[in-house]
Amino acid sequence: MSTGLDFKTDWNHAAGDYAKHRAGFPDWFFDRMEAARLFRPGMRVLDLATGTGTLARGFAKRGGIVTGLDIAPQMMAQAKALDAQAGVSVEYVQAKAEATGMPDGNFDLISAGTCWFWFDGDLAAAEAARVLKPGGHLMIAMLAWLPLKNSVVAASERLIEKHNPSWTLGNYEAGGVRYLRDLANGGFDSREMFAVDYDIPYSHEAWLGRIRASAGVSASLGAEAVAAFDAEHAAMLKRDFPDDPMQVPHRVVATWGRKP
Hints:
Blueprint: H1 15-21, H2 27-35, E1 44-48, H3 54-61, E2 65-70, H4 73-86, E3 91-94, E4 107-113, H5 121-131, E5 132-145, H6 152-163, H7 177-185, E6 189-202, H8 204-212, H9 223-240, E7 246-258
Parallel strand pairs: 1-2, 1-4, 2-3, 4-5
Antiparallel strand pairs: 5-7, 6-7
């Protein structure tokens, strides 16, 4: 049985930095979704744990009829503001991935971006199968920083661990093995996966905001602790990573399966 991470977070506290500084899935990701025939304009899409709506908005820009679902209302408020700037409309609902409250057989595609490890995978997969149409797909994606040796990612992770010893997500490298298992256990067939490593440029200011928006900082520390972390992080960047912007290593992974 797959279970979510045992780490207490409140993403409402990270919503502002998350919306402003966290890079979303790139345009070419959505091109690959269309090429793989997971998505086409007019499809009904449910985006689980939508956060600030990076996947939901991407599908809506391409003609999807999209519902974004999350437990954090402040994250969805930021998503709505970003949608307005982009000129798209997404319906947002406060609910859990394991109990969406959506009707049976209502969606062509269910997406989950950089969130599946927070779920009970078995329950979330069963719920996805319930609300998908026959032939619809569950697509589990990750866009995660890559903690390569001597990278700014690795240095920032060590600083998070110093300020928040309960944070245990360091040295994580995104991969699709667990997702393939959850798809298989959930009865999804035609399972596939791709992964791409690439760099995302971040200014010092943006990387400070990106790290504040992480689970180990604003989502789980108090305001004073966040400020202390942020000050030390800024000094570390200035001292050890003077290039501005920096090229920050990331990985995109997408795994999907079809409901028979």
